[in-house]
Amino acid sequence: MTEITDFNKTKLANSLGMAKKAGKIVTGEELVIKSIQADRARLVFVAHDGAANLVKRITDKTTYYEIPMLDIFSAAELSHAIGSDRKVIAVQDKGFAKKMESLMK
């Protein structure tokens, strides 16, 4: 799991919420995998406390297609950030993805 400050984690969650409002994310295992395979996903979030087979499947896809993946949020934190119950999210906008990745440094 990647280490991040609480401040940056909050900013990251807020950015996820803004991306959701802008319609720049997809959620749910199958839609995220389709987005990865179609080369639309720019950054993928998976809940670190999600089911082991879900985490492995998403990790394998993001590794194969060379898409950055973050596992810093729990399922509850991801769900709270976007306002719906989800364990995996793909950001499809380059600008949002770049901003979120910069918060990790």
UniProtKB/TrEMBL annotation:
<dbReference type="InterPro" id="IPR029064">
    <property type="entry name" value="Ribosomal_eL30-like_sf"/>
</dbReference>
<feature type="domain" description="Ribosomal protein eL8/eL30/eS12/Gadd45">
    <location>
        <begin position="11"/>
        <end position="99"/>
    </location>
</feature>
<protein>
    <recommendedName>
        <fullName>Ribosomal protein eL8/eL30/eS12/Gadd45 domain-containing protein</fullName>
    </recommendedName>
</protein>
<dbReference type="Pfam" id="PF01248">
    <property type="entry name" value="Ribosomal_L7Ae"/>
</dbReference>
<dbReference type="InterPro" id="IPR004038">
    <property type="entry name" value="Ribosomal_eL8/eL30/eS12/Gad45"/>
</dbReference>
